Amino acid sequence: MDTQTNKTQPRLLIVDDEETIRTILRRVMEKQGFTCYLAANGEEALEVLNKHPVDIVLTDVDMPGMGGVELVQLIRAQYSADPMVMTGHINEFSYEQMIQTGAVDFILKPMAPGEVVLRVRRVLRERQLVRGLKETHQELKASYLDTINRLVTAAEYRDENTGDHITRMSTYSAFLAEKMNMDGAWVDQIRYGAAMHDIGKIGIPDNILMKPTKLSGNECNVIQTHPVIGARILANSKSNVLRTGQQIAISHHEKWDGTGYPQGLSGERIPLAGRIVCIADVFDALSTKRPYKDPYPPDVIHSIIKEEREKHFDPGLVDIVLDNFDDFMGIRNSKGGELANWGESFNWSERDAETAPFTI
After folding, report:
1. What pLDDT was estimated at residue 350?
2. Domains in the chain, CATH or no CATH each
3. How far apart are the C-alpha atoms of 134 and 301, rounded to whole Å?
4. Pairing outcome for strands 11-15 and 56-60
5. Sign of CA dihedral 303, 307, 313, 315
6. Residue 350 parent element (H or E)
7. CA quadruple 103, 107, 113, 114: dihedral, nearest 10
8. Mean pLDDT along residues 185-194
9. What letter would DSSP give residue 61?
10. Distance (Å, rounded) from C-alpha 256 to C-alpha 268?
11. pTM score of the predicted model
12. Which of 72, 79, 283, 322 can pair with 83 through a Cys bridge, CB separation 3.0 to 4.6 Å?
């Protein structure tokens, strides 16, 4: 059914119920440097596609068993090959109809071998161009996200745990967005935007940001300027990710009951992205060591999150966190080390409300 295979050659599957046509097309295309596979109908074509990577499928329309139209639709749904169709039934099928089924080209029989070569080579060039554009896009996306990551790291370079914190924040936030059944593009915007939530801390002095004891009133006022600083840094971008990052930077310290900062927004007036990152940030603060506190035990974290429902947090997001609490703890433990071993020494009554992580 197939000829010898060369991985550097383009691969063509020829599907036609007439053996003569299959044989002629194979000879012509092999002379042009193609590796050719043959099939007499749609069912045989699928067997080939399941065994061999193929670049282009050139198929007849009218065949016994599975015809070309159904084959093209299946190729589009399940395989990466580009389907071309050929037919002598000009009155039954139009070019427009074939293109709408997913075919990339439509050739009328009888056809000159030279025309087939030209048409197949055109489809191959377009395929290679699209592949190249996708690779370039991926490289640009990787460079773009790397730049964002470096910007965020530069903003928080003073904290040796920054990398783990950023990774956890992105993972928590994307997890919440997925649980809300948001589309993939929005989940990605949250994933990358969440990493920029504290970018404004680049403007906060070390002696305040890293202070291990209670902050003074003036120091609290200074640290509470970081959302505004972050929003200014990220302002006026054409990038969806950076716009989401700006929205998160300015709103992730707002509270559901309106007592947050810097704008005192409440309820659904707070952008959803900000509400998501808010609860993710508090969860991470509660479960990790900070200059002013040791990590809290899981049961205490659970209690705090529950207590802050409709106060600090969007009640719907609280429900998601508590329903998936083990998953959140799993993210915490897998991205930055295990939680501390408190034994019997931890006493919740010792918590100082002034240093609780969700108050600054």
Report:
1. 32
2. 11-131 (3.40.50.2300), 160-359 (1.10.3210.10)
3. 44
4. parallel
5. positive
6. none
7. -90
8. 92
9. S
10. 8
11. 0.61
12. 72
